[in-house]
Amino acid sequence: ARNSINQANLDNLCAFNFHIAEGTSNSHYENLRYMFPHKITLASRWHTRKCIATLSGLKPGRVDRCPSGCCCFTGLYSSLTACPYCNKSRYKTPGVPAKQFQYLPVKDQLQMMWKDRSITKQLGYRHRYTNSSDSDKIIQDIFDSLIYRELLEKQVVVDGKIQGHKFFSDPHDIALGISLDGVTYFSHRQHSVW
User: Does 152 lie in the same domain as 136?
Assistant: First the structure.
């Protein structure tokens, strides 16, 4: 994909990537845009985000959220008009959310990954993996874990109906994992919440 992007777009993407990866402020990014006008012209953050969305083909999902970040108005909270924790209004004006949370749907990301041959090969790692140790007790990879190995022998059941195949029996199946950091609520930092 890199070869199909013109130099101006590539410059914008590299600068934006630096901005995100290094955690520079928005004002620093704006200052950078005008620092070397005779050498490089960088697009605004808004324009670069639009370019990224167009190039990737991914469209972000949006969910209304509390202006203070207490919760998202989805699931049990989808019909609420104020935050159940801080009581701030969901809407700035009628029908216009005060704040929104943006996300890239996992399904869309996975579909895009399957369209790239080099990434498709990487996605097949789980199916091709075999433990090279002499012992089942040695974990060399997440796919050596007890939970994963138990799932390999377990029938998939959806809404009480057996589906006729086991977990990860198809080479195209994807194993998704989640990793969370603990959050410390108090300055004493003796306990954390997971």
Answer: yes
